[in-house]
Amino acid sequence: MMLRVNGELRSWREGMTVADLLRDIDDSHHYAVVRIDHKHVSRPYFEKTQIPDNSEVFLIPLIAGG
Which domains can be identified in the chain, with CATH numbers? Predict the structure, then answer.
């Protein structure tokens, strides 16, 4: 039971949400969107969106500039 996050293999567990994944990786970036396979999930849905086993996940950081 694994998933690939930005190209790296990580452990997966039943019921894992996007928010769980972000807590597990303990990354200081603020992510605006996460792509799970071919579906985009925005920040308001991180707590309730579950990640299926064997998913390809891409973390897309918030970028600001001017």
Answer: 2-61 (3.10.20.30)
